[in-house]
Amino acid sequence: MPCRHLAAHHAGCDSAFTVDASRVTFGTGSLPEVGDRARALGMRRVALITDVRLRALPWFAEVAASLVAAGLDIAVFDGVAIEPTDASLDDAVRFVRDARPDGFVSLGGGSVIDTAKIAALLSTHPAPLRAYVNAPVGEGRAVPGPLAPHIACPTTSGTGSEVTGIAIFDDLALHAKTGIASPRLRPTEAIVDPRTTATLPANVVAASGMDVLCHAIESFTARRYTQRSTPATPTQRPMSQGANPWSDLGCREALRLANAYLVRAVVDASDREAREQMMWAATLAGIAFGNAGVHAPHAMAYAIAGLVHQAGIAGDDGRGGSLGARGDDRARLQFAPAGYPSAPIVPHGIAVGIGAPAVFRAFASFAPERHLEAATLLGADTRDASLDDAGTLLAHAVIRISRAIGLPDGTSGVGYTADDTADLVAGTLPQQRLLANAPCDVDRECLEQLFGAALGYADVDAR
Ligand SMILES: [Zn+2]
Fold first, then answer.
1. Averaged in consecutive runs of 10 residues, what is the pLDDT profile of the chain (463 residues)?
2. The domain spanning residue 95 has which CATH number?
């Protein structure tokens, strides 16, 4: 076992946690509340951020009509890229600078909501994008002041972006997914209307549902907030503050709901109860991870998704050398799942879910009670189990659900081989914000072992 117990903190450890949450309106038919809510926040001219697919759906018309009925001007930006890049974000920022809105409404999945967060940030507090990006990738500069109000209306039951202060994008020059994290990025309000998921393809529900599951398990098994050093000042306490009693509440309920409803929501689009309950699970898990933080499966996912995305971009524009030594055989990294228009792509929830079982199996000994409880909440029979079984039981529970919703088997299922381990480890190591939140210390050797174990789970009998 190359992963190590946490180094003892020499300075004092923290003894408090902070609860941070957006105002959330949840319910079937709640979307048309957006106009009144935007006006109440003082908005007069709204940047309505979405993507071309959503613009053609009735939810967009509902939101636009509600804003207009409330007497607001709207300027529509529908150029959000699935899996935003620094280049696609530039377009959104330019749009916002020209449109000069005093508030934002975002309608879409995590890509749309994250784009709105960054557009609001850079149009309010101009700086090069990388200035605000988490260190060591960027400067990690603090967001200097409040942003214009933002109402986020999610249309997938997954990312939880509507209730978090985190925005993720691909840095094309660095060949890496990275992000900006600040409480100031958190949307002012979220309006969560489960009707919007009725039109989602099964594959999208599966991927986003696995993301929900992992948000809950990772936040539940993250290092405790009492294992992190006390911040220099209270306002510097990180959002990824570690597992705490508030986040635990959301994690437990999200896991219970995902166990009951995720497979149903994927296999039957007309199962309104299942899709509604998964939307609520996504909201709870989002609030939980926004207050606790996720860890290694998400750090690994950014490398897994990033290399495939880069392979696609390199293939598109002929920049064949941009992948270094692996450039020649990038053809195998062309994963193209049904339901996603811009391939190759490893959707975020798939990228997280294919590495997660390897992590839970390897890390369980550092927090065995929590891994065992998570396995129980996911339906594993833990009556005769000992704490030594916790990692295997939780890994198998996640694999069982992954198979039932049709996810690829491990990283080999999206085209990776053992030859890619060094690249994947190199892409994961910079994700220190996430790795530092794991229940054990995670170094290069630990990640090599995890990526080796995550290649596939075909030998697992997970019934
Ligand atoms: Zn996620």
1. 62 87 94 98 98 95 98 97 86 94 96 96 91 86 94 92 92 79 94 93 94 98 93 87 96 98 94 96 96 96 84 52 46 76 83 98 97 98 96 97 96 94 93 93 97 95 77
2. 3.40.50.1970
Residues of the domain holding 312: 1-19+203-463
Q: Which residue has the tokens 């692996």?
A: 326
**Residues 259 and 179 occupy one common structural domain:** no
CB 385 within 8 A of CB 395: no
Ligand 1 center–CA 36 separation, angstroms: 30
pLDDT of residue 159: 86
Residue 291: which CATH number? Answer: 1.20.1090.10
- Supply the pLDDT for residue 325: 41
Same domain, 297 and 427: yes
Q: Are residues 300 and 412 in the same domain?
A: yes
Q: Tell me which residue has tokens 């309608």.
A: 107
**Ligand 1 center from residue 209 Cα (angstroms):** 10
237 and 183 within one domain: no
pTM given for the model: 0.92
CA of 123 to the centre of ligand 1 (A): 26
Distance 11 CA to ligand 1 centre (A): 31
pLDDT of residue 439: 96
Q: Which residue has the tokens 């839970």?
A: 360
Confidence at residue 73, expressed as pLDDT on a 0 to 100 scale: 98
Residue 25 domain-assigned (yes or no): no
Q: From ligand 1's centre to the CA of 172, what distance in Å?
A: 20
How many Å lie between the centroid of ligand 1 and the Cα of residue 166?
Answer: 10
Residue positions counted in the chain? 463
Cα of 177 vs centre of ligand 1, distance in Å, is: 12
Nearby residues of 318 by Cβ (< 8 Å), 6 or more positions away = none
Domain shared by 298 and 377, yes or no: yes
318 C-alpha to ligand 1 centroid (Å): 31
Cα–Cα dist 145/270, whole Å:
44
The DSSP line for 320-370 is: GGGGGGGGGGGGG-----TT-SS-S---HHHHHHHHHHHHHHHHGGGSHHH
CA of 74 to the centre of ligand 1 (A): 30
pLDDT given at position 330: 62
- Residue 119 within a domain: yes
Both 132 and 155 in one domain: the answer is yes
Report the C-alpha gap between 148 and 124 in whole angstroms: 8
Measured in angstroms, how far is the CA atom of residue 329 from the centroid of ligand 1?
A: 28
